[in-house]
Amino acid sequence: MAVLKAGSRPPWVGLGAAVWVLIAAGNSYTFPLYSHALKSVLGFNQQQLTMLGVAIDIGSNMGILPGLNLSPIKLMVVLKAGSRPPWVGLGAAVWVLIAAGNGYTFPLYSHSLKSVLGFNQQQLTMLGVAIDIGSSMGILPGVICNKFPPWVLLFIGTLTCFLGYGVLWLALSQTVAFLPYWVLFCMYVYHHTFSIWQLWLALCIAGNSCAWFGTSVLVTNMRNFPLSRGTIAGILKGYAGLSAAVYTEIYSTVLHNSSSNLLLFLTLGVPVLCFAMMYFIRPCTPASGEDSAEHGHFLFTQAASVALGIYLLTTTVLDNVLSLSSPFSYTFLVIMVLLLMAPLAIPIKMTLYPVNNKKSGILDRAVGSSDCLISGDANSDKTEPLLTPSSSTTNLGSFQEGDDASDVDILLAEGEGAVKKKRRPKRGEDFRFREAIVKADFWFMFLVFFLGVGSGATVLNNLAQIGIAQGVNDTTILLSLFSFCNFAGRLGGGAVSEHFVRSKTIPRTIWITWTQVVMVITYLLFASALSGTLYVATALFGICYGVQFSVMVPTASDLFGLKHFGVIYNFLLLGSPLGALLFSGLLAGYVYDMEAAKQQGFNLLNAEVSCLGPNCFRITFLVLAGACGLGCVLSIILTWRIRPVYKMLYAGGSFRLPQSSHH
User: Is the pLDDT of residue 369 over 50?
Assistant: First the structure.
């Protein structure tokens, strides 16, 4: 909604600025100045040249879209009413989160980057870090999700995905061997190479699509189901974890194990999929209380995701062991698509067998004015600011709008003695970002995430080389095993933490403590490189890695509220790329290359040279085990600190907040 400036001076200021804009708008008149160069350099004839001039005329007159009245889109959003739309959005979110898992495909094409482009392991790990950094740069999506509808975030994500993976495909397929138009982005300088940083930036942009996709669906669905945060986080993060196995299935079946084809699929297929889902991901009016059917719907969605995970793991193993023919492989692919569509059965069932919604109320949303309602049928949608008064202050009722305006009103009222001075929010209430970052709990969560997930990202980035070093040349089974166990950890972590926090008021972070203990043991298994332990260690690692993601999501919302959840959670996610940069880019790659140099007599000019044996990553895994040991200590301290908060929030067996919160 636009703000109209009052007074006689602003219109003339706008007129003065408009002069400059219209000068810029006359750029089409410059065609005669460079048309002769187009004709001579590119070899066009006059007819082709005139067609180019027509293109400028057509483009400059395509003003229908700019002429549309799109101003309400900026800060207004349609809240879908009724019980069915949230489940439609959840079903669509499954597909978006599969798309958001594109960062997990790095092990499928990393070997091709190394062999075709001649990178060493340290350079390769830096490319893996680029994906981690890009996928965790979610602060901007977190800010935008409070001001724009989810489709805006999805649209930006599709653009970054197309641009990032498109450049990578051009480089790997050697369609374009050198890309001089990229801006050189250097944080770590290789004196002997230039193109590595062009690809680093491209991978960072491609990985950033994960942040836009994930933020749009995670924040929207957490707000659509505010009373089941742990369950929703587990389901959504679980499907994101399964994405690696989905891509592996597509990679081996449709793309015939071609890294170039995979990158082309990520360039074109993923953006098309997310474009198709834009309409269905939207904020909805959540129910005010426990819905008797909701629990069954969640169980069905969880069961469908488990069936999909088991199916993907089984078919990947069968395809590698039995070398199935194309008809069988494509049949498996069709069944996978049907299992991915399973959550949509819930809104279909609601349509075919509608129930009386009078039993379950709709969460009261203080819109502020009846002008916000759109006339229509009985189930008309509600148009209102994207964030109405805080969910924390009205028992998860709504999200606050107009922070700045309300601050001014309260300040004036304080001066007149009408109200008391605003107090700082307590843990469990809605925090602004600047209020959250001064809390010790916030930084404990950040460090725990940095040590646990950051070390885990190191293993994931080097998973293909870890397998090769231990004698496993085909790493698709390793990636599929990790994906399934990652999914199991995410789904189980969300469900288990939700159960115990409701029944025993046990803080969710206790499960992070236990998973980091197991990760210490897992890293020691990796370091030992004993026969038969690689697959066991990968499975344990996948479970622990997944649990930390699904538990951290509802923990952040429990402690700091849902209103600014997108910004706060995405800042916590920065711990992952920082850990990957430290443990993977600066440690794992260096140790690997030094050991490979010893084995090959310091002859690393051949890009096909690989390090073999347990010493390639042993020092790295011992350091990671120490890091997770420190993470265990910090998570124990965090759990002890927030135990009283959870006793207050879940004392009645479900999420509730004090009604006296005004911030």
Answer: no
Instruction: Note the pLDDT tens digit of each residue in 28-57.
Output: 667 677 776 766 776 666 666 566 666 666
The pLDDT-based confidence of 181 (bands split at 50, 70, 90) is very low
Question: CA-to-CA distance for 566 and 13, rounded, in angstroms?
Answer: 36
Residue 65 lies in a domain: no
- Say whether 374 sits in a helix, a strand or coil: coil
What does the block give as tokens for 178? 């050198």
Q: Which of 219, 295, 360 lies closest to 498 in space, CA to CA?
A: 295
Residue 239 inside a domain? The answer is: yes
Cα of 381 vs its chain's centroid, Å: 28
* Token pair of 492 as six digits: 């189980």
Provide the domain limits for residue 461: 427-653
Q: 103: pLDDT confidence band, cut at 50, 70 and 90?
A: confident
Identify the CATH number of the domain in which residue 466 sits: 1.20.1250.20
Is the dihedral angle over the CA atoms 465, 470, 472, 476 positive or is it negative? Answer: negative
Question: What does the alpha-carbon distance between residue 622 and residue 588 come to, in Å, rounded to a whole number?
Answer: 11
The verdict on residue 638 lying in a domain is yes
* 69 vs 30: CA distance, rounded Å: 30
Could you tell me the pTM of the whole model?
Answer: 0.63
- The answer to whether the beta carbons of residues 120 and 593 sit under 8 Å apart is yes
Residues found in the chain = 663
Question: Which amino acid is it at 46?
Answer: Q
pLDDT reported for residue 395 = 40
Banded pLDDT at 288 (limits 50, 70, 90): low
Ordered alpha helix ranges (H), 344-419 = 345-352, 403-415
Q: How many CB atoms lie within 10 A of CB 97?
A: 24
Which token pair is 585?
């880019």
Pick the last residue of a domain from 232, 259, 285: 285
Domains held by the chain: number: 2
User: Nearest CA to 194 among 208, 211, 178, 209?
Assistant: 178
Residue 362: what are its φ and ψ, rounded to 5°?
-100, 135
Within-domain flag for 106: yes
Question: pLDDT tens, 377-430?
Answer: 444 444 444 444 444 444 434 333 444 444 555 445 445 554 455 567 777 678
Number of CB atoms found within 10 A of residue 219's CB: 24
Cβ neighbours for 434, distance < 8 A, ≥ 6 positions apart: none
The one-letter amino acid at 8: S
Cα–Cα dist 123/104, whole Å? 18
Using a pLDDT cut of 90, give the percent of the chain over it: 15
